[in-house]
Amino acid sequence: HCLSVRAVCRREIDGDRGNGYSWKITLLRNYWKSKVKQEWLSGKYSNVLSQNSLPEKSMYPMDVDTWGEILEAELER
What we know:
Strand content: under 5%
Largest sheet: none
Number of strands: 0
Protein name: FBX48 protein
Helix content: 55-70%
Number of helices: 4
Order of helices and strands: HHHH
Number of domains: 1
Shape: elongated
Distance between the termini: 28 Å
Radius of gyration: 13 Å
Protein backbone atom coordinates (compact mmCIF):
# COMPACT_ATOMS: atom_id res chain seq x y z
CA HIS A 1 0.00 0.00 0.00
CA CYS A 2 2.79 2.41 0.86
CA LEU A 3 4.40 2.08 -2.56
CA SER A 4 1.12 2.55 -4.43
CA VAL A 5 0.33 5.66 -2.39
CA ARG A 6 3.84 7.01 -2.97
CA ALA A 7 3.46 6.50 -6.72
CA VAL A 8 0.66 9.09 -6.69
CA CYS A 9 1.66 11.27 -3.72
CA ARG A 10 5.45 11.24 -3.84
CA ARG A 11 5.87 14.83 -2.64
CA GLU A 12 3.43 14.33 0.23
CA ILE A 13 4.95 11.00 1.31
CA ASP A 14 8.51 12.28 1.14
CA GLY A 15 7.49 15.38 3.10
CA ASP A 16 5.83 13.36 5.85
CA ARG A 17 8.76 10.96 6.08
CA GLY A 18 11.15 13.91 6.19
CA ASN A 19 9.13 15.36 9.05
CA GLY A 20 9.63 12.17 11.05
CA TYR A 21 6.27 10.48 10.59
CA SER A 22 6.32 6.66 10.68
CA TRP A 23 5.27 4.73 7.57
CA LYS A 24 2.01 3.80 9.31
CA ILE A 25 1.09 7.40 10.09
CA THR A 26 2.25 8.53 6.66
CA LEU A 27 0.02 5.93 5.02
CA LEU A 28 -2.95 6.92 7.15
CA ARG A 29 -2.41 10.61 6.33
CA ASN A 30 -2.18 10.05 2.56
CA TYR A 31 -4.17 6.94 1.61
CA TRP A 32 -7.50 8.58 0.70
CA LYS A 33 -5.76 11.58 -0.78
CA SER A 34 -3.92 9.26 -3.18
CA LYS A 35 -7.16 7.56 -4.24
CA VAL A 36 -8.92 10.85 -4.97
CA LYS A 37 -5.83 12.39 -6.60
CA GLN A 38 -5.38 9.37 -8.89
CA GLU A 39 -9.00 9.61 -10.04
CA TRP A 40 -8.59 13.30 -10.82
CA LEU A 41 -5.26 12.74 -12.60
CA SER A 42 -6.67 9.87 -14.66
CA GLY A 43 -9.35 12.16 -16.08
CA LYS A 44 -12.31 10.55 -14.34
CA TYR A 45 -13.76 13.98 -13.60
CA SER A 46 -12.70 15.77 -16.79
CA ASN A 47 -16.19 16.14 -18.25
CA VAL A 48 -18.26 16.84 -15.18
CA LEU A 49 -21.32 18.98 -15.90
CA SER A 50 -21.81 20.28 -12.36
CA GLN A 51 -20.66 19.71 -8.79
CA ASN A 52 -23.85 17.70 -8.23
CA SER A 53 -22.66 15.06 -10.70
CA LEU A 54 -19.45 14.44 -8.75
CA PRO A 55 -19.42 11.35 -6.52
CA GLU A 56 -19.40 12.06 -2.79
CA LYS A 57 -15.80 10.87 -2.34
CA SER A 58 -14.39 12.91 -5.24
CA MET A 59 -13.09 15.65 -2.99
CA TYR A 60 -10.41 15.60 -0.33
CA PRO A 61 -8.44 18.41 1.30
CA MET A 62 -5.42 18.97 -0.95
CA ASP A 63 -2.77 21.66 -1.05
CA VAL A 64 -2.24 24.13 -3.86
CA ASP A 65 0.62 22.09 -5.39
CA THR A 66 -1.61 19.02 -5.68
CA TRP A 67 -4.35 21.02 -7.38
CA GLY A 68 -1.68 22.47 -9.66
CA GLU A 69 -0.71 18.93 -10.72
CA ILE A 70 -4.35 18.10 -11.41
CA LEU A 71 -4.91 21.28 -13.45
CA GLU A 72 -1.73 20.67 -15.47
CA ALA A 73 -2.97 17.16 -16.29
CA GLU A 74 -6.30 18.62 -17.43
CA LEU A 75 -4.56 21.13 -19.67
CA GLU A 76 -2.56 18.35 -21.31
CA ARG A 77 -5.70 16.32 -22.18
